Amino acid sequence: MDSVVLGERAWTDAERKAYKLPALSGAGPGPRRGPGRGGRVRRQHPEVGHRGPERETGSRVQPSAPPLPPGPPPCPRPKLVFHTQLAHGSPTASIQGFTNVQELYMKIAQAFDIPASEILFCTLNSHKVDMLRLLGGQIGLEDFIFAHVRGQTKEVEVTKTEDALGLTITDNGTGYAFIKRIKEGSTIDRLKTVCVGDHIEALNEDSIVGCRHYEVAKKLKELPRGVPFTLRLVEPKKAFDMIAQRTRAPKCGEGKVANGRETLRLRSMGGATVQEVPDKSEEGAITRVDDLLESYMGIRDLELATTIVEAGRDKQSTEEFAQALDSVLGDFSFPDVLLCDVWSAIGEAEREEQADTLASAAPL
Question: For residue 290, what are the contacts with CB-CB under 8 A and spacing of at least 6?
């Protein structure tokens, strides 16, 4: 028996006659209308004259403007290429593509096919163990880099007869602390086997590789008086003209470059940036802060001093300065008295620069 779908109700022929429903044309075999209310099929009208994306403006529909053509690609920054040699003698190699000291050492090691762990420190524009030319956080774009690698290992027994040993410690940024200064007439100065540039590898057989300079200085400062201790030192490999040479670094001017030159600033966190060298005021403040670091902590670190001075830029009080310093160098836990002296040193450098500026502008 045939049935016809009306909405959602199927009627037989007998029911259709019983309820006196009109006959439905097209019943029987053949295609039927699809399901839905009243068996209707919704038709879709084809689009005519399609004009692309449109936007409404009030009651009118207007075509949108075509997209702008892409602009020219940005000009690539020129690659910074530096020349380097091993300080004891080697061919010249070119390196590029580093953003911090650790990557710099890796590039130098790859260029000369040596382990990066062999490099103790680098100097700029001199192959000698010259702490005035020690590579810190900045490299002049025309500077020549000399890498000083591990030489002989030696052990020295020292008895601390004074509170201070007379050592100033720095580090290379990759875990090697070394001697930057020896105070004349001090306990260490009397031991002629200890030299500026020697890497301190162990203290009483305890390795201190990986320690920062301030950690090593603290360990040495805490040693008791009158008790002998042993230092294991690694001296830089020397060229023939450097054998038996012992240098004592002057006090100030570490790593400075001439005014008007750009430098590559290497940072422990973040990428390297090309920037102008500090102005006279900032340079004076950096030198004063570096002196204070040596006085209070027994370390010299030009990059650390630069970071401290930058933290004090545009600050109005010691409280603001302390907060800014804690946000970037919280691991150091600087004593309050050092912070006050540093703040004063920064202010004195700025006032001296202002006085010099006024004097130069005064009529003759």
Answer: 252, 254, 300, 301, 302, 304, 305
